[in-house]
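YM 10:42: Short-chain dehydrogenase/reductase SDR sequence, as discussed on the call
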Amino acid sequence: MTENAPNNPTKIALITGASRGLGAALAEGLAAQGWHIIAVARTTGALEELDDRIRAAGGSATLAPMDVTNPEAMIQLAKSVLGRWGGVDLWAHTAIHAAPLSPAGHIDPRDLAKSLDLNVTAASGLIVLLEPLLRGRDGTGLFFDDPRAGQKFFGAYGATKGAQIALAQSWQAENEKLGPRIEIATPAPMPTALRARFFPGEDRAALSPCKDEALRILAEVLAPKPAA
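YM 10:58: structure's back
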């Protein structure tokens, strides 16, 4: 991991899938509010560009160019975060694989396997590793719904994204009293590379900018919750 960090950051946000789109917008929005960002993604160049923008705005980040589907890398990440910061205050999981649209009877087994690996298996493994890091700082886990399950041609993406959200909902219910707090947000349609693959030729000017959605979601998630 490469680091640009203050000595005593007050809040730590771990963002998986931070290199572009909503993940990058969340990183920049939180950094502008004084959070230290641990940015995880496979694309080193995009992470470095994110770091440049965060630094230029006076924020701080640690870059972790890692593949979240690599269990050994994620174990090392969790150990490093625990040793350096003792935990995280927010984990936002935006990493996703968008398999090509296809009739259910023609889904490529390789696309389905990759979708399961990233959208379900990796998310489950991260929950196992990060639950104690969140609980130790009374933190929040944040997932993002995209309800495509059952829509035509969205078989691989819809089924695996739906499974990820079902997993997050179970985790949410299980930790209602003990914590960590689990939030599931549904972003408005944004002009992301993922959406462009699904809807080529769409009028992107009509979509909500990633920055606006990130700030809206963060305002809702980070708002103090009423006592039970």
